[in-house]
Design goal:
The complex is a heterodimer of chains A (290) and B (322).
Chain A: H1 2-32, H2 39-55, H3 60-83, H4 91-113, E1 129-131, E2 134-136, H5 138-160, H6 162-172, H7 174-179, H8 184-206, H9 217-231, H10 236-257, H11 262-276
Antiparallel strand pairs in A: 1-2
Chain B: H1 17-33, H2 37-62, H3 70-87, H4 92-114, H5 119-139, H6 141-144, E1 150-151, H7 164-188, H8 190-200, H9 202-207, H10 212-238, E2 240-241, H11 248-261, H12 266-282, H13 289-304, H14 309-318
Antiparallel strand pairs in B: 1-2
The chains are: A mainly alpha (290), B mainly alpha (322).
Chain lengths: 290, 322
């Protein structure tokens, strides 16, 4: 039983990070119809920036804040320089463009910071806490709490604020949103800033338990994409549940079956879900327009 | 036919002879100018990538079905050949055929499941397939040697055992020419027209009586088996393979060649393969910059020449006629 709890807690921890990645995918997908393959890179950048700022002697909370702001700025620059000029391209081109952006970000980090692994100090120590026979790292609690706060904050933002509702409206129907006065260009910009910031937060949260390096964004991003697809592209609730589900499944596979194949689980699951329920677990059924 | 004006060039096939002749001549004289084995090796890698890009382009460029897992099939071929020849002592030629058929069957089975998807979902599905293959290859250490890779024996074909860069060069050069001819024939055939129609609009193509599901499956199977064959041959040429051959970055590299060179263009795929295979050689001494350069080329091409370099430039020269 305690072993099971252990797997649940580590699964939820990882799942929370996947959920943050998936939220980033969904927000940008809603605003622009783009799957941003650079989403994992935002997480990597957040972790790297945090690691370097703390190594430079800046206290952790300030370093984290500075990193998030900096990465949000990176998101804004990418939207301005790359995504806006490419609006109107077809899906394949947009996928390729974001893959290109991911390569550029990864390359820049490799050239400036090298290939080494970096880590952040845990936010409040490494001493495990015993809960019902399972041990939980304080960092896991940080990850779960901050992720939960972010999700609550986002649902408030999208459900209660004027600009958030505008973003949702633009996701449902861009033209109709424009007609009632939503500035869809701002929506697009905001979506990148928001996704980059969420990604950076995820990257900083996970850096103390999983080291970060120039190429650590790749798998994280793909898992986030899987989680977003599982939940249904564009669905906020779906992204969170998809992420948690993925994290739990991976942790159970690693614990009870084979840790070597835990990465494969997500992709097999994605194929299965896509085959059985192409709109994802929580996505709305789509019909083709001819 | 003369009214085709704004329609794509497919309706008025140009003579293919000059281009083909040019490539054949270049491939024939090239070895004379390549001073040593290193340059021959680069030329061989370009030819391998060009063949893969051409067949991938049939899927992405002509049929409009993105695949982010093509390297998985290359890996299947490579490891299929390596395992069959080393563990069971099967003749390399037979091993190549068996691997290609296995890749084709897998593609056929998977196609029924995933080719119903479009856009992002198809990208996700093909990506997942490729990654699953590469994870299996990495983890089945007993069979594949795991992350450390495994060595592959020599290839034997009709009693001939090619060895050295020079002999392999001729094999891959011939393969490239044959692939160009086959691809051009396919594209201009009724089947090729059907594929392009379904790229334009799947519903419209179905309304015209095209069995779109069957055509998509056939192209997928074809490109998968072709990739496996190239995988087998390059494994024998390289003599040593690692799981990287099936990994996601390799898939992305192949897609890059197609979209940068030119979607729906055989020559575009060749051009993309040449450009992006030479790039790492030129930038070899600047570690990391190679990735940045790749990314910049991708982004800039997609924004300014969305159809790829070759078709966009060709369009520039032809516009006045229309």
């Amino acid at each position: 039983m305690s072993q099971f709890l252990q797997f649940v807690s580590s699964g939820l921890t990882v799942g929370a990070i996947y959920a943050l990645a998936a939220l980033g995918f969904s927000i940008i997908y809603n605003a622009s119809g783009v799957i941003n393959f650079a989403q994992g890179e935002f997480m990597m950048l957040g972790g790297m920036a945090g690691a370097f700022l703390t190594a430079a002697g800046i206290p952790l909370p300030l370093a984290a804040l500075l990193s998030v702001v900096a990465i949000a700025l990176v998101g804004l620059i990418i939207e301005k320089l790359v995504v806006e000029p490419a609006s109107g391209s077809d899906v394949v081109s947009l996928i390729i463009i974001t893959l290109g952006v991911a390569m550029i970000l990864r390359g820049i980090v490799q050239v400036t910071f090298g290939k080494a692994n970096h880590s952040l100090p845990a936010f409040s120590g490494d001493k495990p806490i015993a809960v019902f026979g399972a041990t939980i790292l304080p960092q896991s609690i940080w990850i779960l709490c901050v992720s939960a706060l972010l999700v609550v904050g986002l649902s408030f933002f999208f459900g209660r604020t004027r600009i958030g509702k505008g973003m949702l409206a633009a996701a449902y129907n861009r033209l109709a949103a424009e007609l009632v006065g939503v500035d869809t260009r701002t929506v697009l910009m905001l979506s990148f800033v928001l996704s980059a910031a969420i990604g950076a937060v995820g990257g900083i949260l996970v850096a103390p338990i999983a080291t970060t390096s120039y190429d650590s964004g790749g798998m994280l991003g793909l898992k986030g994409f899987v989680a977003a697809t599982l939940g249904g592209l564009g669905s906020g609730v779906g992204a969170v549940l998809g992420g948690l589900l993925l994290g739990l499944l991976e942790s159970m596979t690693a614990g009870y079956a084979s840790s070597a194949y835990k990465d494969a689980v997500s992709f097999v699951l994605a194929l299965l879900i896509l085959g059985l329920r192409p709109q994802g677990l929580f996505g709305a059924r789509q019909t083709d327009r001819v | 036919m003369s009214t085709s004006g704004s329609l794509p060039d497919v309706l008025a096939p140009r003579s293919r002879a000059p281009g083909l002749l040019a490539v054949t001549v270049v491939l024939m004289v090239l070895p004379v100018f390549l001073p040593n084995a290193f340059y021959l090796d680069v030329a061989i890698r370009i030819a391998i990538n060009a063949v893969l890009a051409i067949t991938l382009n049939l899927l992405i460029g002509y049929t409009g079905q993105i695949s982010l897992g093509h390297a998985g099939f290359v890996g299947l071929g490579a490891y299929g050949s390596a395992i069959l020849t080393s563990r069971w002592d099967i003749h390399p030629g037979l091993a190549l055929v068996v691997s290609a058929i296995a890749a084709g069957v897998l593609a056929w089975v998977i196609a029924g499941l995933i080719l119903r998807f479009k856009g992002h979902y198809l990208a996700m599905a093909t990506l997942g397939l490729g990654i699953i293959i590469s994870i299996v290859i990495t983890n089945e250490t007993v069979w594949t040697g795991g992350p450390d890779g495994m060595s592959v024996g020599d290839f034997v074909m009709f009693g001939w055992q090619p060895s050295g860069e020079r002999q392999w060069y001729w094999i891959f050069a011939a393969l490239l020419v044959v692939t160009i001819v086959l691809a051009q024939n396919l594209v201009d055939s009724p089947a090729g027209r059907a594929l392009q129609a379904l790229h334009g609009s799947e519903v419209a193509a179905r309304a015209m009586g095209i069995d779109t599901a069957s055509f998509k499956t056939r192209v997928f199977v074809l490109s998968a088996s072709y990739a496996a064959i190239i995988g087998s041959l390059s494994a024998h040429y390289l003599g040593f393979i690692t799981p990287g051959i099936a990994a996601f970055p390799h898939s992305v590299e192949l897609v890059t060649m197609v979209v940068v060179g030119g979607m729906a263009s055989v020559w575009g795929a060749v051009f993309g393969a040449v450009l992006l295979s030479l790039l790492p050689q030129v930038l070899a001494s600047f570690e990391g910059w190679e990735t940045i350069a790749f990314g910049v080329i991708l982004v800039v091409t997609m924004i300014f020449l969305p159809r790829g370099i070759v078709p966009s430039l060709a369009g520039l020269f032809r516009r006045p006629e229309g």
